[in-house]
Amino acid sequence: MSTTTDDAAAGAAAKEGAPAPVAKEPVPGSFILVHFLALFGAWMGVLVPSLVSVALKVERMNATGKVGALSLALGLGALVALVANPLFGLFSDRTTSRFGARRPWMVIGTLGGLAGLAVIAYASATWQVVVGWCLAQCFYNALVAAVYGALADQVPERQLGFASGVLALANPLATLGGTYLVDALNASTVAILLVPGLIGAALIVPFLLYGRDRRIARAQVPAMRARELLGFLWTNPVRFPDFGWAWLSRFLMWTSYATVTTYMAYYLSDYLGQDEDSVTHYVFLGSLIANVFILAATVPAGRISDRIGRRKPVVFAAAVLLAAAMGLMAVAHSVTGFLVAQAVVGIGMGVYFAVDIALPTDVLPDANNAAKDLGVMNIAATLPYSLITLIAPGLLALGGGDNYPALFAFGLLVALLAVPAVLPVRRS
């Protein structure tokens, strides 16, 4: 990392006439804590439904057409997330509210996301589930964009690995807590959708009260050109090749991970023959095992990354581990095999989560557009969930149906491709 993000940002800011960002001071543990809680709250609202709650809602409404209905809902929702994250990030980067640039969008995102979950909870038709999930994805991505933008605003490069590792724990812990709630509240479709969202909303409050937020004077905000607004989904990979290669590597890792998470419930029911009660139990148990290993791996891997000043070796290790997990999923024919594979998924993603935030933040083209550019980077994590719903039905249909080995073989391949994709990144 010979060229710092701050230096690059200062140069870009000078060209655009925007204020050059000030040098970032080390952040205290309390700063990281309130960010962790906010991100945990966001993931409670959006990850838990995508993992199990929406699938159960769809199955209870339309058991025979559940795969197609779930693919439609999750696929369209992922497309909405793809657009919403960078768009709300762009707006957040230019928000001049006296409450800060990030807080207003956190409030809007939380309330809008809860409204979307309520639509799903009380839906009586598939189209209502689709509309509700698109609303939830739209607004929860406004929340996520604001949280990541605040992180990029404040954390210096030398703390990014540690901060990334800690914040990355929000994802597995929210998944673990949320799937436990779903298992406990399984009798009520309304509860499995709304309770995780309400708990998540409460966890946003500490940041709103105590978190640092960037305040921008109106005079400091450059005029938004039409070209810039229309290009909010784009950061030029030719002009910023480190950003482009980091994006591609992240896309491949998350595509592999999406093959496991998107169809886990149906893998357990249709391939391993588990009934509905057992499915919710084993989704929780698999998440528990995976997340124990994620927790064990993430922070140490982040500290190692900071110590050696490199992110790429961590990505290499994570990609190989995730590919191994995909191989285990492909050959598993029992719940025991599934649980062993989840342990390896946990180790691989735990290592990867240590740099999943740090690497993109290292290669940001312009700190004054941090939330927008991180939103573009987050497309690499959301687009896979849309694409996998298009790819998976064809793979599953091979050889007569329920061909989950083919799906996980695909996941293995794309995980390994993440290694050559990250090699050209120079600033990490």
General description of the model:
It contains 17 helices and no strands. With 428 residues, it is mainly α. It has one domain: Growth Hormone, Chain: A (Up-down Bundle), CATH 1.20.1250. Helix 7 runs antiparallel to helix 8 (189-210), helix 7 runs antiparallel to helix 12 (276-308) and helix 13 packs antiparallel against helix 17 (404-422). The protein starts with a helix and ends in a 6-residue tail after the last helix. Mean pLDDT is 83; it is low at 1-20. Residues 242-428 form the Major facilitator superfamily (MFS) profile domain. It is a multi-pass membrane protein. This is MFS transporter. GO terms for molecular function: transmembrane transporter activity.
